[in-house]
Amino acid sequence: NIEYVADAEAPVQIACSFEASAGGTLPTWNAGSIISVNGAPALLMSGENTAVGMFGPVAAADAYYAVSPASTFAGLNGSLVKVEIPASYSSEATLASVNPAVAYSTSKELTFKHIAGAGKIRVVGAHSLRSLILQSNGDQRIAGRADVAMNGSDFTVSMETKVIYFLLFLQLYFMQHNFL
Question: What backbone torsions phi and psi does residue 76 show, to the nearest 5 degrees?
Fold first, then answer.
């Protein structure tokens, strides 16, 4: 549940969309979507299955820093937003629920930009996987805490130096589901 505590100004709703994908398509909002705006959760009020969703209630502000989904929000310090890029997720998770995006605006209209990617691997038929390894290129991060410096429309993403690999998680997942 989202509870709004009275502030000096009435709460507002924020119009949110995503930048178009490389293929030109616009993602749509799912029922129950929750984003984080200036560190507080905001619920999709209208716009389910459309490219523009109205989120609220949001405390009126001079600037809005947002993260989608809210579950990946890890902190806000000025214009530096901390985001947790999931190192693991269930096979039932939607890509929208694990693919973090950020937005910044001084108006009540936000356009989210993805800062990471997510994917699913589906094995169909009588195939058997013995192992699956996904790792970064050299010492590049693929998951974990990311700092996003949001300066106007230009965002800079940096990550801690510790490298995370998915190998252990995937081996455990496949063992639990009798793939190994």
Answer: -145, 125
pTM recorded for the entire structure? 0.74
Question: From the DSSP assignment, how many helices (H) and strands (E) are in the chain?
Answer: 2, 11
Measure the N-to-C terminal CA separation of the chain; round to a whole number of Å. Answer: 40
* Contact assessment for residue 48 and residue 29, using Cβ atoms and an 8 Å cutoff: yes
8 A C-beta contact, residue 65 and residue 104: yes
Which of 16, 101, 22, 23 lies closest to 51, judged by CA?
16
Burial 16-45 (b: 16+ CB within 10 A, else e): bbbeeeeeeeebbbeeebbbbbeebbbbbe
Q: CA-CA distances (angstroms) from residue 71 to 3, 42, 103, 136?
A: 17, 11, 15, 23
Distance CA 116, CA 106 (A): 24
- pLDDT (tens digit per residue) in 55-84: 999 999 999 999 999 988 888 998 888 888
